[in-house]
Design brief:
Blueprint lengths: L3 H10 L4 E7 L5 E7 L3 H7 L1 E4 L23 E6 L5 E2 L6 E9 L10 H13 L4 E14 L2 E2 L8 H6 L1 H13 L4 E6 L5 E6 L4 H21 L3 E3 L13 E9 L2 E2 L12 H12 L1 H8 L5 H4 L12 E3 L6 E4 L6 H4 L1 E4 L8 H18 L16 H7 L8 H9 L2 H7 L1 H18 L4 H8 L4
Parallel strand pairs: 1-6, 14-15
Antiparallel strand pairs: 1-2, 3-4, 4-6, 5-6, 7-8, 7-10, 7-11, 7-12, 9-10, 12-13, 12-16, 15-16
Helix pairs in contact: 3-11, 5-6, 6-11, 7-11, 8-13, 11-14, 13-15, 14-15
The structure holds glutamic acid (GLU) and magnesium ion.
């Protein structure tokens, strides 16, 4: 493992002079502190200060006061993970590092997003299992407040409108060790998508933050602004941040090579079933904003029902078997409901806890749903055990609050903190108009 001193030398040799320490908070918003590179060793040892009340911040930067985060007193330490720091050649002189949070006694903070995800991975490891993950990020590019691409979806016309951005973003991400699989203009005017290779979960969440950081830098260099919000224009289609997951025992992908549903192996199917069973509660972390529910409408390919299906883009859980030549590596399940308001560490941690709980109790999957669940009548939905997912943040917050699996996985302090944030965002903003919600969330992430 590279020491902070070795990391500092590596980054200095790459031409860096400062390190951007980047993390995400309870509202899913990006926060950053910049230190001179010469301080990296010292800050990696001692951290830098941050009020621990940010564990309960809401999207409009108020606080959901809940013990122990109910006074202005208290501090925690932000500690850059120096070994994971990387230089950003696109942003001259900058390095980027993800952040762990500790108490002033340098003990793990129960509300450290990376720590929470680390715990979820460790609990999966007790079953001899690991996960691979990646986020497929949709964003909206804006020029002077208007969509920067004209459409049609996936068109050369849209690509050419942002050609320099597209090339520079792909290059800048690769240079920052975020291996790009593809970029393309998405369906709606202004929409643009980036897919990156799967990795271990913490790296996948780190990459999502770094992808947003890089996209902002590249967009600014081209006179563009970028929104990762679930909905950017009233009445428009939304931006997802679809979470792809696979489950592994050693080097065997348990989502393929078996004789279970869609070729899954028993533990793989139980993992997917565990996520499916917990979907309403998971909404509290994967679609965690009031605006998320403007996006999650039937017929929008975002997933509005508790259904799983094979390559079904209207299912909230889309199983992707992969091509016959790549299946052993690439078979995965996509949690389509996930959006850009999600703190990626919490989204991943809760998904892993739900999946692990499914493995532990031997959860089973019903038959896959291959139709659009929105076209099934009430009797068919009932027969297949399909329910409408929460239709607003208020319902999602209560499903999250009631989840024993997520409370056990996150721990009481973290679960109470996130519950309080979701409830406050709903009570403060739930009655707002679509225009007001769009404006509130547009540049939050
Ligand atoms: N933009 C859609 C969403 O809100 C997803 C479209 C797609 O399947 O890529 O998630
Ligand atoms: Mg897409």
């Amino acid at each position: 493992m590279e020491t902070p001193a070795e990391a500092a030398t590596r980054l200095r040799d790459a031409g860096c002079s400062v390190v951007a320490m980047h993390f995400a908070d309870s509202a899913g918003m990006s926060r950053v502190k910049v230190i001179p590179l010469r301080r990296l060793e010292s800050v990696a040892r001692n951290g830098t200060g941050w009020s621990d009340i940010w564990a309960v911040v809401t999207v409009d930067e108020h606080f959901a006061l809940v013990p122990p985060f109910d006074t202005p007193s208290g501090d925690c330490r932000l500690v850059p993970d120096a070994a994971c720091a990387r230089s950003l050649p696109f942003l001259t002189g900058y390095a980027w590092a993800p952040v762990d949070q500790f108490t002033q006694e340098l003990e793990p903070l129960p509300v450290c997003p990376r720590g929470v995800l680390r715990t979820a991975e460790a609990r999966l490891a007790t079953l001899g299992l690991t996960a691979q993950a990646t986020f497929e990020v949709e964003m909206t590019l804006l020029r002077d407040g208007q969509p920067a691409t004209p459409g049609p979806g996936y068109s050369v016309r849209s690509l050419i409108a942002v050609r320099d951005f597209a090339r520079d973003l792909a290059g800048a991400l690769d240079d920052a060790c975020v291996p790009v699989e593809q970029v393309h203009p998405e369906y709606s005017p202004g929409q643009f998508e980036v897919s990156v290779e799967p990795s271990a979960p913490i790296e996948a969440a780190d990459r999502l933050l770094l992808l947003r950081f890089t996209a902002r830098a590249v967009a600014a260099a081209h006179g563009l602004d970028v929104s990762f919000a679930p909905v950017v224009f009233s009445g428009g289609l939304g931006n997802g941040s679809h979470l792809h997951l696979s489950l592994w025992r050693g080097d065997v992908n348990l989502l393929t090579g078996g004789d279970g549903p869609a070729g899954m192996q028993p533990d793989g199917a139980a993992f997917v079933a565990g996520i499916r069973d917990e979907l309403p509660a998971l909404m509290g972390v994967v679609a965690p904003s009031v605006a998320s529910y403007l996006r999650l409408q039937p017929g929008h390919w975002a997933g509005a029902y508790t259904a799983w299906g094979v390559e079904n883009r209207e299912a909230s859980l889309r199983f992707i078997p992969g091509t016959v030549t790549s299946r052993a590596r690439s078979a995965n399940v996509e949690l389509k409901v996930t959006d850009g308001a999600a703190n990626p560490y919490y989204a991943l941690a809760c998904s892993l806890h739900a999946g692990r709980a499914g493995v532990e109790r031997g959860a089973t999957l019903p038959e896959p749903t291959q139709e659009d669940p929105g076209t099934l009548d009430a009797a068919a939905l009932m027969a297949r055990g399909i329910r409408r997912l929460p239709e607003n943040l208020g319902e999602a917050a209560e499903a999250f609050a009631a989840s024993a699996a997520l409370r056990d996985g996150l721990g009481v302090i973290q679960h109470d903190a996130l519950t309080a944030v979701r409830r406050k965002e709903w009570s403060d903003h739930g009655a707002k108009s679509e225009d007001e919600l769009v404006a509130l969330h547009r540049f939050a992430y």
